Structure formats: structure tokens, C-alpha cells
Amino acid sequence: MKTTKYFSLFVCVLALTVIAATGCKKKPAKVTLLPNSKISTVGDLPPGGILPGGDNTGGITGGSSATGFPAGPGHIGWKEDHETLKTETVYFDYDSSTIKSSEKSKIENVAAYLKAHLSAAVKVEGNCDERGTEEYNRALGERRALAIREYLINSGIAANSVDTVSYGEDRPADPGHDEAAWKRNRRGDFVVLTPP
User: What's the predicted TM-score (pTM) here?
Assistant: First the structure.
């Protein structure tokens, strides 16, 4: 009788352990691919599925990019000016890091500013609306920042003058929970960096 009782208890514990280990995970609806991913396609990535301009670590870029442009060094200790280029904020479509044609002139204005202020650098801050998981939005914010960085580099700005950072959904421009707010939160902001 005791053996049967212990055996039943053992089976119950084993079953609970298996259930706890496997969990009830939901399959994500969409997955963001990162550089060097084994899967090769995502809607708005360039051919090859490799993201341009950075290492996708979720912080300020460093090292070398997939396109051969060295990533920005992270201008630690430089003064940050959030106002000068505030009107040049680049907005994105839902779940996209593709730069819309209507937003390209803003990036060209930033490039012109940097060409006129050679001692300055810029930090591109990628942001998302609140929809999606925190990890997904952090990766999407980085893709947005890297897309803007790549455009600046292709406009003649030195790669070491452009840093990127992703804040995902952490820094909304509008705290609302509707399409109007989400539209304002899907953005890339510019911060002018000057030597201390």
C-alpha cells in the first residue's frame, strides 16, 4: 500500500515537472530577424536578410556593420542636444523599418547639418509604439535607427559620426493608446552630440 502511494506521488510530481518545463508557450505572430540569422527573409530587410549599419545589441552600436561601415564609437561624455534637430524626427509605418519617401528629406536635413558642423556627431534613437513584446520592439527600434544611420552614411556622413540606440516602446512621445498616439511613437529621433 505504501509503495503504491509513493509511486502515485512520484508520477504526479513527474507529471507536474514535465508540465512546468514545457509550459504553455504561445507561438509569436511575427518574429524579428537579427543579423547573421539562419532564416533569410523579413519583409523590409535588404537582400540577404542582414541588417545594415550595426550589431543589433540593443545599445549604442560599436564594432563593424554587416555592410562594412564601422559603427559609431558611442560618444560617451559628449554633450547631448535634443532640441536642434527635433523637427527632423522620422516616422515609420506599423511594424516597419523602411524609410518612407516622405521622410527622406528630414534625414537629408540632418546630413546637411552635420556637414555644416564638422565637430558634431548625432545619435539616432529608434522608438516603437506599445504593441508587440518588449524584445520585439527593442529589435524593431534598432532596425529603425540602423536604417536612418545607413541613409546618413550613404548621404556622405562619416560612419563614426552616427551612433544608434533603441528604446523600443520605453519612451513614447504620446502616452495615448490609440492609432494617433501609436503613429507619433513609431519614430527615429536625432540627438546632436558635441565634444565636452
Answer: 0.66
Report which of 140, 187, 196, 191 is spatially closest to residue 161, judged by C-alpha positions.
191
Q: If you ran DSSP here, which 8-state letter would residue 97 be given?
A: -
124: three-class secondary structure by DSSP: strand
Q: Domains, the chain, ranges and CATH?
A: 32-194 (3.30.1330.60)
φ, ψ for residue 71 (rounded to 5)? -75, 160
Q: Are 164 and 61 in contact (CB under 8 A)?
A: yes
pLDDT one-digit tens code per residue, 71-116: 445 799 999 999 999 999 999 999 999 999 999 999 999 999 999 9
Distance CA 24, CA 113 (A): 52
Strands 162-168 and 121-127: parallel
Summarised one tens digit per residue, pLDDT across range 137-178 is 999 999 999 999 999 999 999 999 999 999 999 999 999 999
